[in-house]
Amino acid sequence: MAEEKPCLTEKQKLVDYTEPNTTTVVEQKIPVQIIQQPKKLLVLDLDETLVHTSFQPVQNADFSVDILIEDAQTVQKFTGYVYKRPYVDEFLAKMKQQFEVIVFTASIQQYCDLVMDILDPEKVIKKLYRTDCTFQNGAYVKDLRRFETDLSQVILMDNSALSCMMQPQNSIICPAFYDDKSDTYLQDIENLMEVLSQCTDIRKVLLGVRDTK
C-alpha cells in the first residue's frame, strides 16, 4: 500500500512544512558578494520573528498577501493575513544602518518576497528562501557556513532553535510572535544589537549573555 501523505494546511504548504529527509541535499555556497564589509551580517528569520501570517481570515491583520500556486492542471490562490511584530519597521530601519541584513526564511520565495515588499519597500534587505536552507533530519536548517564569511561576524536571529542547530553560538533565539500587540521584544533587544554591531567576535558577546541568564 502506498504511504499516505499528510493533509497539509495552507500555512504548512507555504511557510513551515517539513518532510521526512529521504534525499541527500547537495549544498551550494551562497555567493559572498551579497555581503558588504565592514558591517557585520545580521541574518533574520521571517515568520514568528518579524511577522506572523494566518491563512484563515482575521479582522485585525496589518496587511494581506495573495499567493498563487500552480501545478500541472490548476492555479490555487491563498491569502495570507499578516501581523507585523510591534516596532518591526523601526527595528529594521536601525538594523539596516548597523548591519548588512539578510532575511533567511524556510518559506517559499513568492510568499517571502510579497511580505518583504511591505517591510522593506526600498529593497535594501537581501532575501534567502527555503531552497537555500539545509534539509536535515526532516527540518530546514540555516547553516551560516554557506555564507563563506568569518562566523565571528555573523548573527542569526530566529524563533526556532532547530533552525539554528548548526551554529547555536551565533544565534539569538527570540520568543515566537503571533499576534500580541503588546510584544516589546524588538525594542528590548536594541541595546544588545548595538553592542554586537561594534564587537570583535559576536560569539563571545552572545556567550556572555547566555551565561547571565
Automatic annotation (TrEMBL):
CDD domains: HAD_FCP1-like. One of its GO terms (molecular function) is phosphatase activity. Signal peptide: none annotated. Residues 35-196 form the FCP1 homology domain. SUPFAM superfamilies: HAD-like. It comes from the Eukaryota. This is Nuclear LIM interactor-interacting factor. It comes from Hexamita inflata. The lineage of its organism: Eukaryota, Metamonada, Diplomonadida, Hexamitidae, Hexamitinae.
